[in-house]
Amino acid sequence: MPELTYRDALRSTLIEEMNRDSSVVLLGEDIGIYQGTFRITAELLARYGPQRVIDTPISEAGFVGAAIGMAMLGLRPVVEMMTWNFSLLAFDQIVNNAAKVRYFSGGQVDVPLVIRGPNGAGVQLSAQHSQSLEATYAHFPGLFVVAPATPADARGLLRTAIRGTDPVIFMEHAALYGTKGEVPNGDFAIPFGVAEIARPGRDVTVVAYSRMVSVSLAAAARLLEEGIEAEVINLRSMRPLDRETIIDSVRRTHRAVVVQEQWRPYGAAAELAATIAEGAFDYLDAPVERVTGADVPMPYARNLEVLALPRDEDIVRAVRRALHREDRDG
Amino acid sequence: MRTRDRDEGEAPVASAVDDRKAGELEAALPWYRLMVIARRFEEETERAFRRGKIGGYLHVYSGQEAVAAGFLAELWKDDIFFTAYRDHAHALFRGIPPGEVMAELFGKSAGVARGKGGSMHLFDVRRGFYGGYGIVGGHIPLAAGAAYALRYRGENRICLCFLGDGAMNTGVFHETANMAGLWGAQGLCPLIFIVENNEFAMGTSVARSSAVTDLASRFSAYAIPHERIDGMDFLAVRSAAARVFPEVRASGKPYAFEAVTYRFAGHGAADLFQPYRAKDDVEAAHRRDPIVILERQLRDAGLLDDARVSAIQEEAERLITEAVQFAEQSPPPSPEELHAHIYGEGS
Fold this sequence. Notes:
Chain A has helices at residues 6-20, 44-48, 60-72, 91-98, 101-104, 134-138, 151-162, 211-224, 243-253, 268-280, 302-308, 312-322; strands spanning 3-5, 24-28, 53-55, 76-80, 114-118, 144-146, 168-172, 180-182, 196-199, 204-208, 230-234, 237-239, 256-263, 289-293. By secondary structure, chain A is of the alpha/beta class. Chain B contains eleven helices and eight strands. In chain B, strands 2-1-3-4-8-7 form a six-stranded parallel β-sheet, sandwiched between helices. A two-stranded antiparallel sheet of chain B has the order 5-6.
């Protein structure tokens, strides 16, 4: 298995799918001549031409809506959202058209659409460019929402997304683009709704996704020094959610910590904690712990930004609380 | 030309023009019939709404029939179109049986969208009708993307996008018109915008909502050729469509019409008092009733008389009665339909 960066895993999968199927087209801001803000689409304009690699004006609602229309007519558009923060300008198109047109037409159309781009905090991008919108989108029936944590996830989930029949909210993370990992070759695909046990353990279950998987793995390494074996689950997909893997793990470990970068109220962690309560309440030896970003607009100053984001030590302490080795107030 | 003396060559030309006119009038007859059926259909939907047979919102098309009829008359069978929520007549004009439309409004399983869309989301992909959308302006970019897709695959089909005057004030209209202008320059956007200017966005008049009341001219900002037409005159609408559609089909470039029309009914079924317009204005508009205008043209040409008009009205009455019976008799969707069609079957 070759080692690739998360960025190259995404880019090479786009190339493979564009070579395989001429109905795959790309749209987005500065994806062509500029080569893409994060260079995911570098050199693709030269390879495939302007009809397939479409540089759009700064019109999120317009080009997402157009991509929905293309998908309804049988193309497979992959839209690059420069960052998911900008998707709020296209929110109506995504939730009112992409997510619902199959349903309100009585099943007359497919919408094989992928919208991909970075979600979550970068480095000092401040309040408007650092949001995590996965729970917002995962709220809506009709959308798939996935969040790859590794280069292999990036390839496997993107392939499934492009070959599907429904709109996929594909949430990358800017801090992961340069990370490396082994990526299977060929037609490797990861089905939606299948989580991965990134690290097995018997004492506590840590559920995470996207960048928080690597932070959770770092926490697990530190916990090992204290003799605590944490099991880390990489969700990969938020909707559909692999309830079985989560519940099965918690039934074995009897303790759970859920981790998200986004704000605490009404976030993904709340859904995960409720899922655990529904499926493993009788097995729990402690309340489910939530590790989340601070409930504030993202500050600019680096020291404040660091405080606003979950760190491995926050997860370590949450695990200790779940194991009653640290007070809840402590 | 007008001051020139008559010469021998003129007679055949004049007669060719007369022949074409006669042909256009004759071809309008079936559309007169459809417009009468659509009007009767809408009257029945208002009654059914009051009887509690139709729920939610109800937006009727009465007064605007010549617009959808004139344009859809020139649309080829495999061409496609999108519209907003005032969509019943578009469905009927495209050949969807009235019973299937009425069943959709009644929330029944025999409805065009299996009773899951309702009045605002009529849909029949087999007939090129890509919906019925409920958020003002929201469908406009879909139509541009669909037009792009047709051209991308090298097809010569075209796409119509009906929208209201109110939709021109949404941001996504301007975003789409701009992209259509850009894509059209590459021959990749065989899209025709049809602004149905019925003078009101709900209760807000065009003069109170658009800084420029010449709505067609707003397309000049996006390099899209445009014109304003009389949306109450079926023959005028159809001949404009017949002139422009082949150009768009050949060039892949967008075009825009502002069809000036009028909504006889309230915005929706709940718009009872209509405080935003005077009764006199509504009465004046009725004197421009598109069905009356076409009827007069057809009578003048000797193609309609009292007997034929009443035969068409009786047929419309019968068809609508049958449509209501069909809708009443159709079972509601089965409970399994609740969770069906959220994702594709392969997902």
